[in-house]
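Q: Could you fold this chain for me?
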Amino acid sequence: MNKRTLLKAILAALREELQTFTRAANAARAEATDPQSRAENKYDTRGLEASYLAAGQARQVAELESAITAFEMLPARQFAPGEVIGLGALVELEQNGERTLYFIGPSAGGTEAKCGKREVLVITPQSPLGGQLQGRQQGDWLNLTRGVAKQRVQVLSVA
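A: Sure. Below is the predicted structure, expressed as structure tokens.
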């Protein structure tokens, strides 16, 4: 898989999400400042709730803008055979015959991007799985705990 193409797909997904949150933040801000949202009595909190929502969505917009900047600055380097997993690695795992692709990104964990016919999930080194993958290499086995179940997972490739 071409890592430059993957990074472009991740950036496209982040930009699309940014547009959605920007529209939502603008709508919530308009609702919060609308004269119709003014409290009619001490129990009317509609305007206050809209302002809280607008503030939360504005924070989300700022986080997405920061993530986009971080991904734009991330080099699309290839990992050499035997090199340990780190930031910018594309990792393929196999669990019970099922293969999954993960990209170790600087932020925006949970973002999904389609590259070719494959789905890639962005995880961060701070996530539980990302933390367990740090320092591992191709061929290593992991014992993951998901809920109460323990599962054995193999690192098939690191690119």
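A (continued): The mean pLDDT is 91.
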